[in-house]
Amino acid sequence: MLRRINVKAFGLSLGIVSAVVVFLLGFLSSFGYAGELVTFLEGIYPGFEPTLPGSFIGALWAFVGAFVIGISFASLYNKFLKLG
């Protein structure tokens, strides 16, 4: 039998992982790594840039976006689970 997903835990998990990845990309980009990916992310997350403060701003945006996507996915999964 399939189990329900804890909506808040799933959203937090996805948000934290996304925030850490974006922060590390921004931080590493200040040393010359992942330049094209950071340029792409600068267009998605306002204030994100390859500096320490910019990395924190990008991480915050990434957390919020991934949290919303995570809770949406988990909520839909739980609703469809009831239908099946």
From TrEMBL:
TM helices/strands, residue ranges: 12-34, 54-77
Keyword presence, Transmembrane: yes
Origin: domain of life: Bacteria
Keyword annotations of the record: Membrane, Transmembrane, Transmembrane helix
Protein name: Uncharacterized protein
Species whose genome carries this gene: Candidatus Campbellbacteria bacterium CG22_combo_CG10-13_8_21_14_all_43_18
